[in-house]
Specification:
By secondary structure, the chain is an alpha+beta fold. The chain contains seven helices and nine strands. The strands form two sheets. The protein has a seven-stranded antiparallel beta sheet. It has a two-stranded antiparallel ribbon with strand order 8-9.
């Protein structure tokens, strides 16, 4: 992987590690999670701290993703996220993509190994790096423990390239909490319904 800006330290959450598929255990034993592509991909680790890097927090904690997103099962493993907080999950051996604004879940039709291979070969498309690239071209830097806050949200932003959403770096916990709140507000609204919300 390229553009590595953070690697997880010692495995300190062995309970969570033991619940993972053998291939993911093997990956995390070699490298206990990583932030790569200059913040474009965050593979979580089995750690007690820092909280933003903890797999258990978003899988089993009070803010577990399945508590917010109805399409998820408790057993889905949220092993990674992109620069804006969209999630990559394992369901069996399949990698799924969760749009954290809309709650839509898509099967990427790859396993873990081929997900990593696709990210390595086609990072911009596989990881949706366009917002991060625009942020970097404007002089922004995404640090470990941060995600991009995009305004307006992509699901309601105009589709033409001239009106890209503005982006700023915010702590992971704030971004995920904002996305969960936004999703709760819009999930039952019909298409075209007006919505008001505060930017992060």
């Amino acid at each position: 992987m390229k553009g590595i800006i953070y690697t997880g330290g010692e495995l300190t959450d062995l309970v969570t590690l033991a619940r993972l598929p053998v291939y993911l255990q093997a990956f995390l034993r070699e490298q206990n999670g990583v932030v790569a592509y200059f913040g474009g991909l965050h593979l979580r680790g089995c750690v007690a701290a820092p909280g933003w890097h903890s797999l258990a927090g978003v899988w089993q904690g009070e803010r577990a993703l399945w508590r917010t997103y109805a399409a998820l099962k408790k057993s889905d493993i949220p092993f990674a996220q992109d620069c804006a907080g969209n999630q990559f999950l394992l369901r069996g051996d399949a990698v799924l993509f969760l749009d954290t604004e809309t709650g839509e879940l898509a099967d990427l039709e790859v396993d873990f190994k081929h997900f990593l291979f696709g990210a390595e070969k086609f990072p911009v498309d596989a990881l949706g790096l366009e917002p991060l690239r625009a942020f970097q071209q404007a002089g922004g830097v995404l640090r470990p423990g941060q995600l991009l806050s995009l305004y307006p949200p992509l699901c309601i932003a105009p589709k033409n390239a001239a009106s890209r959403p503005s982006a700023k770096a915010v702590p992971v916990s704030l971004r995920l909490a904002w996305l969960a709140s936004f999703h709760e507000q819009i999930k039952h609204l019909p298409d075209g319904q007006a919505v008001t919300f505060d930017p992060l």
